[in-house]
Amino acid sequence: MHVHITKADGSSEFFKVEKLRRSLRRAGASPDEVNSIVTQIMAELYDGMQTQEIYRRAFTLLRENELPSAARYSLRRALFGLGPTGFPFERFLARLFAADGYTTKTGIILQGHCAPHEIDVAAYNATSSFIGEAKFHARPGIKTDLQVAMYSYARLLDLKGTTICSDSVCGVAEFWLITNTKFTSTAEHYAECVGIKMLSWDYPRHNNLHDRIQRAQVYPITVMQSLTSSQIATLITYDIIICKDITDNPSVLQHLHLTQSKRDSIVQEALHITKGLK
After folding, report:
1. CB burial class (10 A; 0-12, 13-18, 19+) of residue 17?
2. DSSP state of 79
3. DSSP code, position 171
4. Is the model's pTM score more than 0.70?
5. Cα pseudo-dihedral 14, 30, 247, 240, rounded to 10
6. Which domains are assigned to the chain?
7. Spatial CB neighbours of 139, under 8 Å, sequence gap ≥ 6
8. pLDDT in tens, 84-113
């Protein structure tokens, strides 16, 4: 079936059924669920259908069968919920790198050779360290471009020789540019040329942002279906960013003024999402 679909940035491409299958499998849907949802989506496809509409339909079908899988499937959209400022996204990244064994810091000031720099994320472990610029976008069609990559490289040059901790590995040698959406191709080529590390939803091809989240099971609380947007905003003010923050500290839910049974159900959903329990 050759059907053109409209992507978030307004461009079009042929619908690729394997891409839908892969996203459903990554969310934890069973083979039978994948086949059933794909069959229903294929029957409803039409030329010009938006990818967001396909996502919403697949999410609805998946949610009817398996809530934790539906939450994981909604991950990309959930990252947009870490707004409207970029600060929650920075703290989310700190949690993500901490899960990989790094000690992390956010919102620090480092003095470069010529100017001070506010650093979104800094991370170090026993063998390496890096600083990172987090570019948060509230909509999927917005990409991080060449100008941002060039600005990041200039910051790296000014900060070389600066340290983020007292250990021998803590000198600033790597700069990571991280976004919740995508990079333009020119930004990718420039970063590869000058040696900036880049991380986006689908870049690099392996071990990208999506892969890292799935591997570490570090899911933002914005994937949860039992929380309203106002409740999520309240929890973020208490530095509750990922589902594990809730399971590690259930008492924080008292700030939402809910019944005990409702708080228990929120904790259970958080457990299901992070552990993949049925």
Report:
1. middle
2. H
3. B
4. yes
5. 10
6. 4-66 (no CATH), 87-204 (3.40.1350.10), 219-275 (1.10.150)
7. 8, 80, 181
8. 888 999 999 999 999 999 999 999 999 999
